[in-house]
Each structure stands twice: as structure tokens, then as C-alpha cells.
Amino acid sequence: MQADKKLLKDLTPELESTGTGWYITFTIFLGLFIVGIYGLVQQIDKGHIVTGMRDNVVWGFYIVNFIFFMGLSYSGALISGVLHLFHTGWRKPIIRMAELITVISLVIGPFFIFFCIGRLDRLYFLFTHPRIQSPITWDVIAICTDLIGCFIYLYLSFIEDFAILRDYDELNVAPWKKKLYKILSLGYDGSPIQAKLLANARTIMATMIIAIAIIVYSVLAWIFGVTLQPGWHSTIFGPYFVIAAVFSGTGLLIILMWIFRKVYHLEEYITQRHFINVGVLLTVIAAFYGYFTFSDYLTKWYGSIKMDSILIDKLFSEYYSLFIFANYIGILLPGIIIAFPRFRTIRNITVAAVIALLALWVNRYIIVIPTLETPFLPIQDTRPDWIKYSPTWIEWSLTFAGVSIFAMLFMLVSKIAPIISISEMQEKDKDEILK
């Protein structure tokens, strides 16, 4: 299977050699991961007493991270699926990053649920003794379905590139990589019938993962929405969580575009146009996300439920700084930066994306923690540090471990296959095959 020689020369150097900087960066992330593993061993050995979670605040950083990573996975599925179905021309250099965001986040996210479980030895009960009445069971089914679907979609997008790399005689890689490309390409040779079958399969899977992503993240939101807790019992949580997921994923995509553009010298392929287009998408999603946030808090503020009013007062007092950052700065500032053409530089758009991503994580935090600190039936005669949540180094270490394994998996994938899809960048429009 032939490919453009220039594309191959530009997009394969990272497969052939690895610089010192890559090893240093990977070692740093690996160190953070090892510290997180040590923290997990301490937690398993001594129990949840080493965390900040207690009888009132039974959820902490782990659930916040779970919601955050799952949102990233669904946003990647939505972004890559929609761009593929609409045959958006400028998608080609960035669609693989969106696909990888989906699968890697989906692999990492559920582990934070495991960290939150007190008896890991009983984990298999989720599969051997499920209760269909429980929203947790819905979540297990939904996540497993989404994981299988997204893995298939990602693999389908790699087949053509594996075939190209298999047939590229000038590719200077280790023999095991060549053998791997031969196995994973499944004998694909680019014939019209194979190309048509593969294109149809990708279109079908793109459609399916869009639907699955919306359903799965709605199920996750309903776990909150059907719970009688202040601030959670809301019918708006389904679409609100889906919009928030796309918001965070769009921000992460911009950050990854900047990183790989800089590190792998992909300025010719990932241009300012791509940053502007994805930045505009971030601004539009921010407007919807801001609207849902405003609607959610407005109805609670004007409602007659006493505990909701107490929760709002807590957010505007004890959590004032976090609330302002998550729901004002994190929404308005990216919009302002990207809305005005004079500010639309690659650096400014990346800064806006970083702010949006951090603000979304903080938003997940102030959805979970303040509510659990404001129960309908307060526990009497309890020491204050058991009522208020404060994360310990164990939780911080596992949080950074999650971020580090995300980065390491991205780095490892970029050493096996090009971070920009060679097949997508082919001059020949593959959509013509379907006509």
C-alpha cells in the first residue's frame, strides 16, 4: 500500500528514534505513577482512614477524577465521531488525538472507582451479583459497552496506517515493530473493496459511539440526578454533564495539539487554522455550558428548598474562589480570548484551553464535595474535620498518577503509530470510494 513520501518522511521520525527529552519526560511521569502506587498500597493496607473521606463526605477526589476522565472519554468520542461523519476537511491532522483521548481516558477513569471501594476483594460482585435496579449497575454496563465500541473504532482508524508502515521499506524501526505492523494491518492492501468495507465500518462505528457516549454520560449524570441530595436532584444533569464533557475534551484536544505540534515539529500540518477552528468550537460549547450552569444554580437559588439555599450560601462563602474560577473565569475568559480576532494566537488559545480544562475539574469538585458536606440529616456531635473534606497526600498522589499514566500512554502510542493519521492526510479523498 503506497503513501505520499513526504508525509511518511514528516510523520514517521518519532517512530524511528527517541530523544533524551522523551526519556526524561517519561521518567518524570513514571515517578509520579510510582508514588501513586505507593499511596494506593498504603490505602489498601490501612483503609480509607488515610484519605479525607469520612461518614459525611463518602466521595472525594476519586469520584471527581472519575467523572472528569469519563467526561474526557465521551467528549473525544463525540468530537471524533462528529468530525468523521461530517467529513470535515480540517479534521485530518487532529482526529487521531481525539480518538486517543477517548480510549485512554476510558481506560483510566474506572480505576478511580476502584480506589473508592473499601473492599476490592469483592469487586467481582459488580459482575456476578448485579442489581439492575441500581444506577451503579447501569454505569458498569454502559462503560463496558462504550469501552468495547471505542476500542473497535480506534483500531479501525489504525488499520490503514499499519498497512502503510508495513509496506514502507525505508522505515528504520526495530524488527518487532515491523512484525507488529504486519499483524495489526490484518492483510489490508488498499484494494477498492477493502477500502469500502473499512470506510463503511468506520462510519457505522462513528455513529454508534456518538450515541453510546451521550447515553453513557447521561447514565453517569443520572446517578447524581436520582439521588436525594441537595444540589443533585435535578432533571438538567443529563444534558449538563454531556455539554461539560465536550467542553473539557475540546480544551484537552487543543492542549495536545500544542504539545505534539511543538515536540514533533508538526507546524506544517497542525496550523493556526486548526487552533482557531477548535477554539471557536470551545467558545460555542462554553456558551452552552455557561447557560446550563446558570440555569442549574438559578433554579436552586430561587427555589423554596431550604437545603438547596444552604448549599448555595456555602458555595458563595466557603467555596467562593473555586466557584468564581469554575463558573465565571473558566467560562468567560476562554470565550473572550477566542471571540476577538486580535487575541486568536496559538499561545492564547492554548492558555484558554488550559483554563477551561482546570475550571471544568474544579466544577466537578464543587458539584460533589459541598453537597456531601450539606446532608439533609446532619450527623450530630461529630468532629469538624470529619464533616469537612480535605484531601490527603494519598488522594493527591493517585490523582497525579492518573494524569501521569494518561500522558505515558499517549507518549507510548506516539512511538508505535503516527500521532497524525497518514491515511487521513492522503491527497486522494477516501470519501469518493463510497460513491
Overview of the structural elements:
The protein has 17 helices and no strands. It has 435 residues and is mainly α. The chain has a domain at 5-268 and 399-424: Formate dehydrogenase/DMSO reductase fold (Up-down Bundle), CATH 1.20.1630. It is globular. The two termini are 22 Å apart. Residues 428-435 have low confidence and may be disordered.
- pLDDT under 50 segments (min length 5)? 428-435
In whole angstroms, the N-to-C terminal distance is 22 Å
CATH topology of the domain at 5-268 and 399-424: Formate dehydrogenase/DMSO reductase fold
DSSP strand (E) fraction?
under 5%
CATH architecture of the domain at 5-268 and 399-424: Up-down Bundle
Please identify the top-level CATH class of the domain at 5-268 and 399-424.
Mainly Alpha
Structural class: mainly alpha
* Helical content class: 55-70%
Oligomer: single chain
Mean pLDDT: 85
Total strands: 0
Radius of gyration of CA atoms, rounded to a whole number: 23 Å
**How many H/I helices?**
17
Order of helices and strands: HHHHHHHHHHHHHHHHH
Reported for the largest beta sheet, the result is: none
Q: What overall geometry do the principal axes of the alpha carbons give?
A: globular
